[in-house]
Amino acid sequence: MKNIKWIFVLYSLAALLAMVGIGLAVAFRSFPMIFLAIILLGVVMVMGFKKKRSMIEAGLL
């Protein structure tokens, strides 16, 4: 592992926090928060994959 891409570390931490949010929302039985956390997780994952694709196309990965 020569060079860390810090943007991907941030995306992974954001996804981790969204997953923790899902768990907390389930524990509190809050259906709106479950829904929002799942949407947030999806948005973060899509953003991360789009960033990775754009970096691959630019030759940075």
UniProtKB/TrEMBL annotation:
| InterPro entries membership | DUF5325 (IPR035211)
Going by the UniProt record, its keywords in alphabetical order are: Membrane, Transmembrane, Transmembrane helix
Q: Which domain of life is it from?
A: Bacteria
What Pfam families does the database record attribute to this sequence? DUF5325
Q: Which residues cross the membrane?
A: 7-27, 33-49
Q: What is this protein called?
A: YlaF family protein
